Amino acid sequence: MSAMALAIASTAMAQEAKVDRPGYSLQVARQGDAPVAIVFESGFGQGAGVWQGVVDELGATCGCVAYSRAGLGKSGTDGKPKTIEAHLQDLGAVIDAQAKGRKVVLVGHSYGGLLVTEYARLHPERVQGLVLVDPATMGQRVAFKQADAARVAADDKALLSMLPPKLAEDYTLLVTQLDEPANATPHAQPDVPVALLTSTQVVTEPFVFEETAAGKALWKQQHAQLFATYARGEHLYFRTGHNIHREDPKAVADAIRVILADAKSTED
């Protein structure tokens, strides 16, 4: 969940729009139209542009919808730190505005993976399938702190020193929520197809606990536990870093196509 705010890359087929929220608006980039919309949710601190390689792989008629959360890219903000629940409300507003009357395939990376997982759990009637790209999980902080609380605290301090003030406020609120012990208990998930993509790379000089051998083992364990809550799907492993969608956009596009094919076969 590294901090990075990238503006959406413009393409000939992309259409920009705004989704109004109380006190601010969210910038949305939409490409093409399709019976099932593909809605992208970025990692912490990242704007919509990080998905452009995947969108390009899917093509001009993909029905792709990417947006930047409040305070990122060209999206506005009311200046208040956002809880998980507030981000879920914004995601719901984007879906309601950009996929009226249609189900969606949700694609989320890192913190965005956590958000789409939670959205699908709370609103299964709107979701056709999930593509989780090295997702954060509700239980990861509890597991990491049990394994190495001192390292997690040091990582938090280092990250907070690097983040802009508003993102630092969001991060502080987020980890406070994730530190709740109840998060260690997995929730039942909806009966939708899921593709879960896990990074297996261990870094020689790790920046955060997740990049160490011990942290990566727990990361994979968290993903295995998450995948076990779904009735169907595929769990794929990649020898890449955390940003699978940027290192191998074709692999993410292929996973989306599998979920879309499942949706079509279900309708048939």
TrEMBL record:
Gene Ontology molecular function: any one: hydrolase activity
UniProt keyword list: Hydrolase
InterPro entries (alphabetical): AB_hydrolase_1 (IPR000073), AB_hydrolase_fold (IPR029058), AB_hydrolase_sf (IPR050266)
Gene Ontology CC annotations of this record: membrane
Superkingdom in the source lineage: Bacteria
Pfam families for this protein: Abhydrolase_6
AB hydrolase-1 domain residues: 38-255
Protein name per Swiss-Prot or TrEMBL: Abhydrolase, alpha/beta hydrolase fold protein
Organism: Lysobacter dokdonensis DS-58
